[in-house]
What does this fold into?
Amino acid sequence: MKILVTGGAGFIGSAVVRLLIQHTEHQVLNVDKLTYAGNLESLTPISDHPRYRFSQVDICDSVKIAEQFADFQPDAVMHLAAESHVDRSIDGPAAFIESNVIGTYTLLEAARAHWLALPEQRAEQFRFHHISTDEVYGSLGPEGLFREDNRYEPNSPYSASKASSDHLVRAWHATYGLPIVLTNCSNNYGPYHFPEKLIPLTILNALEGKPLPVYGDGKQVRDWLYVEDHARALVTVLSEGKVGETYNIGGHNEKQNIEVVRTICSLLEELAPNKPATVSHYEDLITFVADRPGHDVRYAIDAGKIERELGWKPQETFTSGLKKTVQWYLQNEDWWRHVQDGSYQGERLGLATADPV
It folds into this structure.
């Protein structure tokens, strides 16, 4: 297939592009605006491959997006482009509405026009795969799992914008017949993760002897999914998923945030014993900070449907995946140093102090 991937320079998107180029015969057009979290260095392993192309385009630019469809003539779209950090959405929600809602609408309209112009056989095979998050479901209590039929209860500007985009995708299927599949995933982690997120931020702060911020009491629970497992799931859903269906993707790895941070500290004691001079034990750097506004207590995915119907399940346990992740950051200092030289300097985000627009 010829697959148009939006947001392919981001964390999950780059994992998808690397998988498609390295382990399939598909052609890929990566369309990415290259905002602060987009990083072409995450695609260095495949950047010169003859089946890979890149275009720096904003998905909100309807003219340029239409040009990409006309030029590349895709058989499928994998839509990952999104503003994705909850804390940033608290400080500046406008960018999330623009990218996640308006951008998705723009892309849907371009895809619909392209699909309607395809010959019958190609039109039947065309797919628009929208990649979303479990945060659209809100917060779980101590029991239960998010299933595909859970109602939407988003609690942050980020999750509300993703819920909006999910609804648009469903509506374009119901109203116009656009052949869509939709996935909602749990928290991803792994190589090439932008260092404002919990796991890479903890690793890099610890290596530099900086405080390891933990929100509230650290007992918020997340279901952790290794990014390369997620990429395999997404390609599986694109090729084998049933049109109009939603598939939840999770790692079967529920952990409290404080557990995650302490496990990273333990791994670093083993893998990076030469600490900064001011640090006796990495765990000494743990610093509890005021919780973020509207912080969801627990997310956990029931990934039974994708396993039963499509045969996917994660290959990595949290233990194996986290060790691989720590090792990757230790071995790829050039990558994360270049990221740190840019716009993000490890500051606390999500304090809700920004002036309204």
User: Anything to note?
Assistant: The chain has twelve helices and twelve strands. The domain at 2-189+225-252+300-315 is CATH 3.40.50.720 (Rossmann fold).
